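Homework help thread (please don't just give me the answer)

Our assignment gives two proteins as sequence + structure token strings and asks us to describe the second one. The first is just a warm-up. Here they are:
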Amino acid sequence: MSEPRFVPYRPSRLPEDEMLRRARAFYAQMDARRSVREFAPDPVPRELIELAIRTASTAPSGAHRQPWRFVAVDDPGIKHAIRTAAEAEERASYEGGRMPKEWRDALEPLGTSWQKPYLEIAPWLVVVFEEVHGVDPDGAPRKNYYVKESVGIACGLFVAALHAMGLATLTHTPSPMGFLSRILGRPPHEKPFILFPIGYPAPGAAVPDLRRKGLDEIAAWNPRP
């Protein structure tokens, strides 16, 4: 086995007041982020999607396997097929008894239903697949590590990148999601993780009036048993 190769890492150390300024500005920007279900059909340049994917790919991953695949779609026919299949699964969940009442009650304040018109209205759909294992050049499987954790971090950076450039999205996870593999022709070692509709918010778009938990509800400092 060859010795690991390292390169210098020398980021500039910022003054504390500048660090605080940047941290507060970034928090304020991200605190304004909301999940959107009403999109404008206005086109979004492909380069913006490419840059968001590149940003997501900077995420740390188990053994640096980078076990993700971002599949971008702007073809109307493919989007229609995805909407049709997603709504069939969602309708079975909402009205067919697959979704427990407790879950439906939890979703009620969000105003969601099995109908997903935004899957055709949003100019882009990006489906993120987790690579259960990699594939070597000779076709042999190669083990990946901490796959879900790695892909989850990449998706978080993807959402932050989209918001930073003024685009809106939604983390859509129809269950089950196997239809995405079929429609998009993905290989068996790739499993659907999240579907992101992406675009500009529609004029007059509204979002649920929600409250985020305060710092004291999500953080603990030096706890003792």
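The one we have to describe:
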Amino acid sequence: MSGHSHAKTVAATKNANDAKKGKIFSKMGRVITIAVKEKGADISVNATLKGLIEKAKEFNMPKENIERAIKKGTGELVGENLEEVSFEGFGPGGIAIIMDGITDNKNRTLGEIKGILGQYEGKMAGEGAIRWMFERKGCIETEKGQTIEEAAIEAGADDIRGEFVYTKPEDLETVKKSLEEKGVRIVGSSLGWFAKEEIAVDEKAREKAQKLFEALDENDAIQNIYSNLA
């Protein structure tokens, strides 16, 4: 299982310059707003929102930014007309890519993504052309250096690879809570798309793929990027 994810990208930029931090906070704010719109602002019943707020705090997102994003979700503040989008495409060496995001203008974002893919020997794919190559799973990242196998199995995990614990989408929060109760230290958790099979490419294609991921990550709308690159 592998996937380039925005969360991992921003993890490497906690000490980024103000412009980069501003982009990160903007993306996080959009995700929080969507989460509130979908399941409300009460973190006792909205586990997704609770996790997002925790992640935002990890990246030192100002409290007022978080509160503003929540109020946009509840309608207390006027915000952008946001919608979730998901695009599928091919990248260098024929790798398959899923790009999930949030935008206030789907057509504009579609044009931007087409342009980015075209710069790196990639192209858009039709809906469903890529997604069948992936599985939707929950992923829990645990702190390195812990013995987690027994606890993860007892918690109902599907798979364990190193410090990562994989679950069925609907079991993510239950498994995470069980691990915490067993004393396992959690770094983060999320739902994502994971390749059923990975493919290897030559070094030239790999370098272009990395540049493509970075360019997609710079786009304001793109939140998560998943590929089957080995």
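TA reply:
I won't write it for you, but here's a hint about the kind of observation we're looking for: The longest helix spans residues 18-39.
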